[in-house]
Amino acid sequence: MNNEEKALSLLGLAYRGRNLTSGEDQVLDAIRSGKAKLVIVAKDASDGTRKLFNDKCTYYGVDIKIWGTKASIGHAIGKETRASIAVTESGFAGKLVTLMEE
After folding, report:
1. Distances (CA, A) of 28 to 4, 24, 62, 98, 102
2. 63-86, pLDDT tens digit by residue?
3. Domain that holds residue 96
4. Based on the structure, what is the number of domains in the chain?
């Protein structure tokens, strides 16, 4: 199992454990409220979406990763497609960052 598969599996686990939120409005709420520990935006998200989340995460001091595709992220969490997700638990966030950077 490669690191991308491990990260996608971990995203699914975080989602089932309710340590992850998805959908643009919910992710923005998690960033603003300080609950988001890591925001992941799909590589194939629109330029506007990437800019929006990059700006919000920079302003609020939240880690952000541009990673995966909308389809792969959506599949991992049991949704059709997701351009953005927020991990709300620091343990999951740390492990995901490690897997994404290797």
Report:
1. 25, 6, 11, 23, 27
2. 999 999 999 999 999 988 889 999
3. 3-101
4. 1
